[in-house]
Amino acid sequence: MKGHLLAISDLTRAELEEVLDVTDTMVEVSGRSIPKVPALRGRTVVSLFYEDSTRTRLSFDTAAKRLSADTMSFAVSSSSVNKGESVRDTIETIEAMGIDAVVVRHCSSGVPAQIAAWTNAVVVNAGDGWHQHPTQALLDAYTIRSHTGSLDGLRIGIVGDVKHSRVARSDIEAFTALGAHVTLVAPPTLLPPSVAPWQVDVSHSLDDVLGELDVCYLLRMQRERMSEALVPSLREYTALFGLTSARADRLGKDALIMHPGPMNRGVEIAGEVADRPNAVITEQVANGVAVRMAVLFLLLGPGRHALPPTGDPSSAGAASADDTTTEERP
Predict the structure, then answer these.
(1) 167 contacts 136 by C-beta, under 8 angstroms
(2) Which CATH number fits domain 134-283: 3.40.50.620, 3.40.50.300, 3.90.1150.10, 3.40.50.1370?
(3) What is the reported pTM?
């Protein structure tokens, strides 16, 4: 993987699998008594979030620190953005301080790609408008693969507000590229005008497809992105498309239940269902750190040949922290 990570469509299947393979190593590193390696020592990663975030922002920050990178966190609420500073001026100001990567989230589609044209730093898209959220798709694919061994031939249902979901768009591209069969399950009002560019099936009834699914992926109802009433009420949406306890009982015993968070408990998923053993929602969050470690390592690090060694010898933390590495800027 080279350059930037702006969209899942930028990656080949081989590159997707490379990220997932490297994530295996990063999971092992995260499980050590001292979960830190010097792979990105001397690099600086800045988080530039123009939208609120908990999981993504914290996991990128944790990932960078576990790789020994220096981090900078940009708080829009207390920045010169409130004085009218443009995105370009902000980027140029931050770059003047010396940075190697920018992790950016913005409410407008295409902003990360535009930033990539303004900076020599690596740009990682942490979510832009309705467009893409590539690292979420990578962690979702990794979570599924860790349970099934492969996505080839799996039947995955993506349920809910596909229209407004950057997660859905990235997941569709990642899952299908890795060999899964994807069905979008939603009322017509919550689907994009056309799904023709995607290799997916469409169903307007969750009950019709539940028994066939290996993975039931529930999307959050994104009321903050809706400018019109697209469902009669949340109560009616839950009655038709919510994963209630009764519906969850109809899933296969090995079927996974997933959600990108934050959840609207009682709307797209019942509270009891979210706590079932086959609900891997907190596992998705945990895997997010390792996946983002893999992404930063592949974009900024010295290459797969320099992956941190596996195992947790008693001296691993101290020895690794004292190692020095010579790295070329990508």
Answers:
(1) yes
(2) 3.40.50.1370
(3) 0.90
